[in-house]
Amino acid sequence: MRRNDTIGELAWYRCCAPRPVAIGDLARVAGRRWTVEENFQATKSHTGLDKHQVRRWHSWHRWTTLAMLAHARRAHYQRREGSITAAHRPDLRL
């Protein structure tokens, strides 16, 4: 369970695993969700991830893979040029 102190919102995570997992590991994985969501939003706005009209799984898979690759290259070049630093985005360890 997590709580937003400013608005008092509560959120729960339900986790299933084939073997017992330490609570610290579950909390770490749940915390990575925000990074994943931010990266998908950036990919949608910068590389056109949301522009594909899905008709077949294979075309969707190719489009998504290409968009994610373009996002990774863009992040790499921004990091190399210094416009994004590890201090601003610790999740961009390339």
From TrEMBL:
Organism: Promicromonospora aerolata
This protein's name: DDE family transposase
